[in-house]
Specification:
Layout lengths: L1 H23 L1 E5 L6 E7 L4 E4 L6 E3 L5 E6 L2 E6 L10 E7 L2 E10 L5 E5 L22 H16 L7 E12 L2 E10 L3 E10 L5 E2 L10 E6 L3 E2 L4 E9 L5
C-alpha cells in the first residue's frame, strides 16, 4: 500500500511539473476584420489545437502535409511531413458564419501548440477604428498564395519568381533591449518580405510575441524563437503590404 501511494504521489508531481510547459505552448491570434491572415508556428511532431469561439467553422487546405480534423469549436492539426526543409509552409482557410480568415502554418521544432482564435463577430475582439490604410483583404487566393510562397522563400533563403531579393545589413532597435538587423529584403507586386536577425542585448531574458511587431501595413509575423536569453540570436520574418513603386 505504501509503495502504491508513493507511485501515485510521484505521478502527481510529474503532472504538476509538466503543466507549466503545456501552458507555454499557447497563444492568442486576433482577427480584427474579415480576410485577415495570421502566421503561426506549429509543432511538427505533436498534435496542435486551434480553438475558435464559435462552432460551424469550415476548414479548407490544399496542403498534403497537414492532417486536419474538426470537432465543434476545436480544430486539430498534425504535420505529416513529406516536404523538403524550407518548403514547410501550409495555408488554412477558415470560413465562419461571420466571415473568412486564413492562417499560414510553419511546422517547427516546438512542443504542441494551442492557438486561441478571436474574431470580431464573437464579441471577443473590438472592431478597429481609425486608420485602415494597412488593412489588405487577403481572401483573394492570389494574396494568400503570394504570402505562402514568400514565406517559403524567406525561410529557405531562396530567390522567388516575381520578387527582387536583396541582401542588406541595416541595424535598428525595435524593442527595448532587442537589436534588429535587416538581412534580406524581398520586393513584390502585392507583398514585400523582410528577414531580420534579432539579438537580446538587454542582459536578461526577453519573451516575444508576434503582436510586438505588428503595425500598420504588416500582414504577417513569424518568430523563430519566442524566448531569447541574454546575447541569444533569433530570426524574425515580416510580410508587409507592398510599398509603392516608382
Amino acid at each position: 500500500m505504501k509503495n502504491f501511494l508513493k507511485r501515485v504521489l510521484s505521478f502527481s508531481f510529474v503532472v504538476v511539473s509538466i503543466l507549466p510547459q503545456l501552458a507555454y505552448g499557447s497563444k492568442t491570434v486576433s482577427f480584427y476584420s474579415e480576410g485577415e491572415t495570421a502566421m503561426v508556428n506549429i509543432s511538427k511532431k505533436d498534435l496542435n489545437l486551434i480553438k475558435f469561439p464559435i462552432e460551424d467553422v469550415k476548414v479548407f487546405t490544399k496542403s498534403r502535409t497537414l492532417d486536419v480534423k474538426v470537432s465543434g469549436k476545436n480544430i486539430m492539426v498534425s504535420y505529416m511531413g513529406g516536404e523538403e526543409e524550407g518548403s514547410q509552409v501550409a495555408a488554412l482557410l477558415f470560413v465562419t458564419p461571420g466571415g473568412s480568415y486564413s492562417m499560414i502554418l510553419k511546422p517547427s521544432d516546438i512542443p504542441s501548440e494551442t492557438v486561441v482564435v478571436q474574431i470580431p463577430k464573437s464579441g471577443l475582439v473590438p472592431e478597429e477604428e481609425g486608420d485602415e490604410s494597412g488593412a489588405l483583404c487577403l481572401t483573394n487566393s492570389g494574396y494568400i498564395q503570394s504570402i505562402k510562397e514568400l514565406l517559403r522563400a524567406m525561410f529557405a533563403n531562396e530567390t522567388l519568381s516575381g520578387f527582387s531579393a536583396q541582401k542588406v545589413s541595416k541595424e535598428g532597435a525595435v524593442l527595448p533591449g532587442l537589436k534588429r538587423t535587416l538581412v534580406l529584403a524581398y520586393r513584390g507586386l502585392l507583398v514585400d518580405g523582410e528577414k531580420y536577425r534579432i539579438v537580446n542585448v538587454s542582459g536578461k531574458k526577453i519573451e516575444l510575441l508576434e503582436s510586438d511587431f505588428h503595425k500598420t501595413g504588416v500582414l504577417a509575423v513569424s518568430l523563430e524563437k519566442h524566448v531569447l536569453e541574454p546575447l541569444e540570436e533569433g530570426e524574425l520574418y515580416l510580410v508587409k503590404k507592398a510599398s509603392k513603386k516608382g
